[in-house]
C-alpha cells in the first residue's frame, strides 16, 4: 500500500540473544496498525525492542551491547527493505545485504628466459600428487603391526598446583594399554633441547601453567578408545588462582620483562621531542592467531633394533631427534627422524610439534610398540600456542607539516607461559619500514601469561611493528587534518637514510618504483575520489581505500645452517636431492629442482627431491624464516656448481673433449674414471651473501555495512618486489596466501578465553574464524615488480614467504576510513584507537550506531 500501513500484527523473533528465542511481543503490538512511513516510528520501535531483548553475557559470545544494537539495527534494515524506493537513495541501500560479485584474480609477472627452467612459471613439482590425493603425509603412513594410539590428558584450569591424577578408570577402559604421566619419563621431562631456552614439560608434574597443558597420555588400541578413556581421568587441583590471560593483566601482576634484545636507539630522542611541533601518543592491541595448518600436528614413534624411528610433522628434525633422545635418556644416534612433507607450518611446527613426538616416544618406550599421536583440531588449538598477541604504546613528535622527528615505542608481546619464542625484539628492528625518522627509542618487551606458550608465526613481531608504523602515520594525519598518503610520502626514506635496526637504505624501491606504479595500475586517485562521492551519497554504507607499504629486511646474518646432498645417477643421468629443509607448501622443492636443472643442464622432470632425515641431513637448523629458502637454494646451487665443474673438467680429458658423448654416457665414464658425481653441501654462515631489502605495496578498498559491521573487501592490488623470481607461480601463490592469512589475523580470527578457568573458548571453526572463500578480496591483482633484480640473492631472486603478509594491515587502514566517515555523521571527528582483530562487532560499535538515528526520511 502507498502508506505502508501495517494491517495485522507482525511476527518478530530473534535467536542468538540468550539461550531462548526472543519473541518481541511488545514491539509487535507497538507496530500493529501503524504506517512504516510514520516519522520516528523505527526509533520508538527500537526503544521498545531494547526492553525485550535481555541479552546474556558469556565470554565466548559477542558482547550484550553489540547483540542488542544489532537486533535493533536488523529491525531497521527490515523496515528499509520493505519501504524500498519509498525512502531516499541514501537510506535505501541499508535495506539489503552487501552483494558480493563473483571472485576474480589476475597475476602479472615477467618470465626470466635467461636461466630456464629457473624463472619459468611452472607448477610446484609435487602439485599433481597433492591435488589428486596421492601425496603421502604423516597420517597417511600405513599402520604398523601392533601400532597403538595416544590421546592427551589435558588440564582443565590455567593456574593451579596438581594434587593428584587418578587414572584408575581410564586404565580399566576397553582397549587401553597404558596411561603415561610425568613419572614414567625415563629421561628429562622437557620437549625443548636447544640451548639458551627455558625447559617446557612434556607432561606437567607439579603445577599447571595454562588450561589445556598436557598431564599425560592415554595409549590404546584405537584413537576412539584412547579418547574415551582420557575423559575418565580425574585431576585434583590445589591452590587454584585466577589465570593471567592478557598483557594488561600481566603488567598488573609484574610479569612483563625486557626482551633479550637491547632497546633500539638512534639519534637523541629527547632532542627530537624538544624540536617537535606536535607530540602524539597512542596505544592499541593486536591479537594472536592460530596457525591453522591443513595438517594437524602428528607423530609416530617406532621402537627398532637399534633405537627409534620417528615420523613427525616438524620443520626441525634435528631438534625432534634431540628431544626424543632427551626424554628417553638415549643417544641421539639411536633416533632417526624422517619428514617427507608437511601440510603447512607458518611457524607452528618448529618446536610445538615436539611435545607430541616426545609424548609418543615415552609411550613407545613404555609399551615397546609403535605409538601414533595425531591431534584433532580442538586438541591442537588448546595444547599449543600460536602467534603472540601484542600491545603497542607509542609517542611521536612531528614538525608542523607532519614530518616525524622522534619515535618512542614500547612493543610488548604475550609469550604465553614460557618466554622461549619472544619476537618483539625481531619486530623492533623492522619498525622503520619504508620511513625515515632521525631519533628512535624502541623497547621490546614480553609478558608471561597463563596461556599455552606462544611461538613464531609468519612474520613474527614484524607484522605488528609495521602495523604500528602505519597507525602512527594515520594518527599524524588525523591530528594535523592531512591526507594519510601525503603524510606517508613526506616521511619516506631516501637512499642513504639511517635505520635503527639495519644498515642504511640502499634504494627505497617503494618510493621510487612501487608507489608510482601502484597509483596508476590501481587507479588509486580516481577510486579515492569515487569513495568520497559514495560516502556522501550513502548514510549506512561507507567505503574506504588505503595504500599500504612495507620494507622487510632479509638477513643472512642469522644462525641458520643446513646440510644436504645432490646425487647424479650414472644409470640414466637423473638427479636426486635431499636437503635439511622441509617443503610445507612454500615450494622449496620446486625452486631447488629448478636450480639443479639449470646448473646441471638437465630437464626439470629428471630432478627429484627426497625426504629429509636426520641421517642424511644431520644437524640442520629449523626452517622457520623466509631466509631459509634462500639458504637452501644457495646450498643446492653451490653443490650443483661443484658437480658441474667436476664433470666438465673430466669431460675435457676425453677424446675430442667429449664431443658427441651423451649425458648418461658421460656419467658412466665419470664413475669408471673415479669421478664422484655426488656432492654434499653445508651452508656455512660466514659465506652467505649480504643482507637485502624486500619492498611491497598494496591498495585496499572495502565497503562497510554500518548497521551490522559486516564488510566486503572489494579489491586489493599488490605489487611485490621478488627480484628476478626463480619460480613466478610459486611466488604469486606465496603473495596471495600471505596476504589472506594476514587479512584473517586483522579482522576475523579472534581468540577468547574463559576468564575464570583460562580455557580457550575458540577451539574450533565454529567459534574461530579464518577467512573463507567468501571473505577474501573479490578482486585480487598481484604483480611481481618488473625490471627488478637482487645482487645479494640466489640467482638474483628475493625471498617471498613472509613479507607480503605485512600488506594485510591495509584492510584496517581502509576500514578506518569507512568507520571515520560513519562516525562523522554521529558527531565524532577525532582520532580513535583500533585494536585488532577488527571484528564486525568492533566495527559496528566504533561506528557509534544508535537507534535514535533510525530515520526513514533523510533529513
Automatic annotation (TrEMBL):
<keyword id="KW-0411">Iron-sulfur</keyword>
<dbReference type="Pfam" id="PF20256">
    <property type="entry name" value="MoCoBD_2"/>
</dbReference>
<dbReference type="Pfam" id="PF02738">
    <property type="entry name" value="MoCoBD_1"/>
</dbReference>
<dbReference type="InterPro" id="IPR037165">
    <property type="entry name" value="AldOxase/xan_DH_Mopterin-bd_sf"/>
</dbReference>
<dbReference type="InterPro" id="IPR008274">
    <property type="entry name" value="AldOxase/xan_DH_MoCoBD1"/>
</dbReference>
<dbReference type="Pfam" id="PF03450">
    <property type="entry name" value="CO_deh_flav_C"/>
</dbReference>
<dbReference type="GO" id="GO:0051537">
    <property type="term" value="F:2 iron, 2 sulfur cluster binding"/>
</dbReference>
<keyword id="KW-0479">Metal-binding</keyword>
<keyword id="KW-0500">Molybdenum</keyword>
<protein>
    <recommendedName>
        <fullName>Aldehyde oxidase/xanthine dehydrogenase a/b hammerhead domain-containing protein</fullName>
    </recommendedName>
</protein>
<dbReference type="InterPro" id="IPR036856">
    <property type="entry name" value="Ald_Oxase/Xan_DH_a/b_sf"/>
</dbReference>
<dbReference type="InterPro" id="IPR000674">
    <property type="entry name" value="Ald_Oxase/Xan_DH_a/b"/>
</dbReference>
<dbReference type="Pfam" id="PF01315">
    <property type="entry name" value="Ald_Xan_dh_C"/>
</dbReference>
<dbReference type="InterPro" id="IPR046867">
    <property type="entry name" value="AldOxase/xan_DH_MoCoBD2"/>
</dbReference>
<dbReference type="InterPro" id="IPR036683">
    <property type="entry name" value="CO_DH_flav_C_dom_sf"/>
</dbReference>
<keyword id="KW-0408">Iron</keyword>
<keyword id="KW-0560">Oxidoreductase</keyword>
<dbReference type="InterPro" id="IPR016208">
    <property type="entry name" value="Ald_Oxase/xanthine_DH-like"/>
</dbReference>
<dbReference type="GO" id="GO:0016491">
    <property type="term" value="F:oxidoreductase activity"/>
</dbReference>
<feature type="domain" description="Aldehyde oxidase/xanthine dehydrogenase a/b hammerhead">
    <location>
        <begin position="132"/>
        <end position="241"/>
    </location>
</feature>
<keyword id="KW-0001">2Fe-2S</keyword>
<dbReference type="InterPro" id="IPR005107">
    <property type="entry name" value="CO_DH_flav_C"/>
</dbReference>
<dbReference type="GO" id="GO:0005506">
    <property type="term" value="F:iron ion binding"/>
</dbReference>
<comment type="similarity">
    <text>Belongs to the xanthine dehydrogenase family.</text>
</comment>
Amino acid at each position: 500500500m502507498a502508506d505502508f500501513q501495517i494491517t495485522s500484527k507482525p511476527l518478530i523473533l530473534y535467536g542468538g540473544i540468550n539461550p531462548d528465542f526472543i519473541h518481541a511481543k511488545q514491539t509487535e503490538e507497538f507496530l500493529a496498525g501503524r504506517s512504516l512511513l510514520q516519522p520516528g516510528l523505527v526509533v520508538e520501535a527500537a526503544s521498545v525492542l531494547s526492553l525485550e531483548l535481555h541479552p546474556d553475557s558469556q565470554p565466548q559470545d559477542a558482547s550484550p551491547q553489540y547483540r542488542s544494537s544489532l537486533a535493533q539495527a536488523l529491525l531497521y534494515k527490515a523496515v528499509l527493505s520493505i519501504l524500498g524506493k519509498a525512502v531516499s537513495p541514501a537510506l535505501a541501500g541499508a535495506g539489503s545485504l552487501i552483494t558480493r560479485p563473483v571472485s576474480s584474480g589476475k597475476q602479472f609477472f615477467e618470465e626470466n628466459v635467461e636461466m630456464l627452467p629457473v624463472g619459468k612459471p611452472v607448477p610446484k613439482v609435487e602439485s599433481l600428487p597433492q591435488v589428486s590425493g596421492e601425496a603421502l603425509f604423516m597420517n597417511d603412513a600405513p599402520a604398523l603391526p601392533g601400532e597403538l594410539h595416544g590421546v592427551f590428558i589435558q588440564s582443565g584450569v590455567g593456574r593451579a598446583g596438581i594434587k593428584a591424577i587418578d587414572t584408575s578408570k581410564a586404565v580399566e577402559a576397553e582397549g587401553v594399554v597404558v596411561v603415561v604421566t610425568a613419572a614414567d619419563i625415563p629421561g628429562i621431562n622437557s620437549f625443548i633441547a636447544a640451548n639458551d631456552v627455558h625447559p617446557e614439560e612434556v607432561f606437567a608434574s607439579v603445577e599447571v601453567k595454562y588450561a589445556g597443558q598436557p598431564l599425560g597420555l592415554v595409549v590404546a588400541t584405537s584413537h576412539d578408545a584412547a579418547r574415551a578413556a582420557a575423559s575418565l581421568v580425574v585431576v585434583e587441583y590445589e591452590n587454584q588462582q585466577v589465570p593471567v590471560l592478557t598483557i594488561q593483566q600481566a603488567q598488573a601482576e609484574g610479569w612483563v620483562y625486557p626482551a633479550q634484545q637491547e632497546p633500539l636507539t638512534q639519534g637523541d630522542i629527547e632532542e627530537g621531542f624538544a624540536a617537535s611541533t606536535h607530540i602524539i601518543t597512542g596505544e592499541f592491541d593486536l591479537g594472536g592467531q592460530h596457525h591453522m595448518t591443513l595438517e594437524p600436528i602428528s607423530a609416530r614413534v617406532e621402537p627398532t633394533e637399534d633405537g627409534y624411528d620417528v615420523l613427525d610433522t616438524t620443520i626441525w628434525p634435528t631438534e625432534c631427534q634431540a628431544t626424543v633422545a632427551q626424554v628417553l635418556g638415549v643417544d641421539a644416534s639411536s633416533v632417526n627422524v624422517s619428514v617427507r612433507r608437511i601440510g603447512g607450518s607458518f611457524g607452528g611446527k618448529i618446536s610445538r610439534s615436539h611435545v607430541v613426538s616426545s609424548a609418543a616416544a615415552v609411550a613407545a618406550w613404555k609399551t615397546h610398540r609403535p605409538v601414533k599421536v595425531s591431534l584433532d583440531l580442538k586438541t591442537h588449538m588448546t595444547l599449543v600456542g600460536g602467534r603472540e598477541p601484542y600491545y603497542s604504546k607509542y609517542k611521536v613528535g612531528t614538525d608542523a607539516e607532519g614530518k616525524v622527528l622522534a619515535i618512542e615505542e614500547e612493543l610488548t608481546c604475550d609469550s604465553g607461559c614460557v618466554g622461549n619464542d619472544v619476537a618483539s625484539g625481531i619486530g623492533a628492528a623492522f619498525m622503520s619500514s619504508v620511513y625515515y625518522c632521525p631519533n628512535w627509542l624502541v623497547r621490546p618487551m614480553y609478558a608471561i601469561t597463563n596461556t599455552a606458550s606462544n611461538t613464531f608465526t609468519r612474520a613474527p613481531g614484524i607484522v605488528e611493528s609495521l602495523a604500528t608504523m602505519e597507525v602512527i602515520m594515520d594518527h599524524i594525519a588525523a591530528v594535523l587534518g592531512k591526507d594519510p598518503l601525503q603524510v606517508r610520502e613526506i616521511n619516506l626514506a631516501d637512499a642513504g637514510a639511517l635505520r635503527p635496526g639495519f644498515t642504511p637504505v640502499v634504494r627505497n624501491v617503494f618510493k621510487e618504483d612501487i608507489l608510482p606504479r601502484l597509483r596508476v595500475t590501481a587507479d588509486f586517485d580516481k577510486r579515492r575520489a569515487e569513495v568520497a562521492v559514495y560516502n556522501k551519497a550513502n548514510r549506512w554504507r561507507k567505503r574506504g581505500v588505503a595504500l599500504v607499504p612495507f620494507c622487510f629486511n632479509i638477513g643472512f646474518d642469522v644462525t641458520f645452517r643446513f646440510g644436504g646432498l645432490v646425487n647424479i645417477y650414472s644409470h640414466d643421468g637423473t638427479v636426486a636431492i635431499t636437503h635439511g629443509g622441509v617443503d610445507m607448501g612454500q615450494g622449496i622443492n620446486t625452486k631447488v629442482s629448478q636450480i639443479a636443472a639449470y646448473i646441471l643442464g638437465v630437464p626439470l622432470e629428471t630432478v627429484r627431491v627426497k625426504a629429509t632425515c636426520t641421517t642424511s641431513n644431520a644437524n640442520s637448523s629449523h626452517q622457520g624464516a623466509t631466509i631459509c629458502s634462500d639458504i637452501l637454494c644457495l646450498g643446492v646451487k653451490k653443490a650443483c656448481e661443484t658437480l658441474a665443474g667436476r664433470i666438465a673438467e673430466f669431460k675435457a680429458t676425453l677424446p675430442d673433449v667429449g664431443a658427441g658423448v651423451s649425458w648418461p654416457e658421460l656419467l658412466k665414464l665419470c664413475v669408471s674414471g673415479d669421478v664422484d658425481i655426488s656432492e654434499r653441501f653445508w651452508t656455512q654462515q660466514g659465506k652467505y651473501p649480504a643482507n637485502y631489502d624486500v619492498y611491497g605495496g598494496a591498495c585496499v578498498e572495502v565497503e562497510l555495512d554500518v548497521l551490522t559491521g559486516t564488510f566486503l573487501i572489494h579489491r586489493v592490488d599488490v605489487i611485490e618486489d621478488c627480484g628476478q623470481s626463480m619460480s613466478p607461480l610459486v611466488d604469486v601463490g606465496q603473495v596471495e596466501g600471505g596476504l589472506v592469512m594476514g587479512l584473517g589475523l586483522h579482522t576475523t580470527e579472534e581468540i577468547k578465553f574463559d576468564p575464570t578457568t583460562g580455557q580457550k573458548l575458540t577451539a574450533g571453526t565454529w567459534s574461530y574464524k579464518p577467512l573463507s572463500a567468501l571473505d577474501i578480496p573479490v578482486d585480487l591483482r598481484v604483480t611481481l615488480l618488473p625490471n627488478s633484480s637482487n645482487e645479494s640473492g640466489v640467482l638474483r631472486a628475493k625471498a617471498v614467504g613472509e613479507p607480503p603478509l605485512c600488506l594485510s594491515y591495509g584492510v584496517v587502514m581502509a576500514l578506518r576510513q569507512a568507520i571515520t566517515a560513519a562516525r562523522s555523521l554521529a558527531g565524532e571527528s577525532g582520532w580513535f584507537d583500533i585494536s585488532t582483530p577488527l571484528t564486525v562487532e568492533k566495527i559496528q560499535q566504533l561506528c557509534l550506531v544508535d537507534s535514535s538515528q533510525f530515520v526513514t526520511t533523510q533529513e
